[in-house]
Amino acid sequence: MSATRGNRPPPAAAPDRSWTVLELLRWTSEHFAARGIEGARLDAECLLSHALGVPRLRLYLDFEKPVLPAERAVFRELVRRRADERVPVSLLIGEREFWSLPIRVTEAVLTPRPETETLVSVALDRLPEGKPLRVLEIGTGSGAVALALAKERPEIVLTATDISQEALKVAQENAERLDLAGRIRWLQGDGLDPVKGESFDLVVSNPPYVAEEERAALPPELAHEPDVAPRSWLTSRTWRCSEARTGPSCCGASRWAWGRCWRWAAGSRWSTGPPRARSSRATAGRRGWWTSRPGGTWRSDRG
């Protein structure tokens, strides 16, 4: 830690001095803000609660409580890595809350973003309660979206795929921690490859969507995320989809519109097997998502 506010030395420079919870939070929040870190106060609270081994809200009850030197040492190292190395808080503490679920994250998966909860919300709108509909998530990562859907709709039949075996391992561990292990079938493979010949009522995906040429403009925190993120299959490959007269609901999230959805005519299923009618191509890099008009005719949504 380098910057200070006023004449107060940072915790690292005064190891023998007593620091309260509130003093540490104030100093760290100012330090993070000076380093250009968004959500500085929240980051400080998450790191300090992790270092102390208490819920974050407990900090508000213990503002005047002195922090022990051993606890400060743990906290100092977390603050250093957040400020100097720009390691995301989720990786420092190994967890991110998503849809009120504690989701374990590692460097093998992308950190679930708050915006992605929109995808879950839109998907739930298309999943009537009480029906055992078949749902597929492509690129599940930590499993956050699939697990949120499993929690909200216990009757649906879920399949989740990912190209990374390491990511699937994290997703399965999250399912076990949340007592949802038996609710989801986990398959390794690229895109739709693991489910060829199968049909689903709803397909959801929030794939990585950063183009290689945009990497230099990314926040430094994203350098700690998996290498798959910049090589997005939204910007580097073409998907071929089967077009029939009617098909499924599909939900996706993109940089242009979180929670943007494909919507087919109701009351039908989508097959990932051989086309039953002429096929359409969803081309990488095109603005928007493939969608359909009534009757199942594809069009490119550029709105």
What is the mean predicted local confidence, pLDDT?
Answer: 74
Q: In the residues, how many domains can be counted?
A: 2
What name is given to the CATH topology of the largest domain? Rossmann fold
For the largest beta-sheet, the strand count, sense and barrel status come to: 6 strands, mixed
Spatial extent as radius of gyration = 22 Å
Distance between the termini: 46 Å
Helix percent band: 25-40%
Overall body shape: elongated
Instruction: Please count the beta strands (DSSP E, at least 2 residues each).
Output: 14
Structure description:
By secondary structure, the chain is α/β, with parallel strands linked by helices. The protein has two domains: 11-85, Helicase, Ruva Protein, domain 3, CATH 1.10.8; 100-300, Vaccinia Virus protein VP39 (Rossmann fold). Helix content is 29%, strand content 17%. It starts with 20 loop residues before the first helix and ends with a strand.
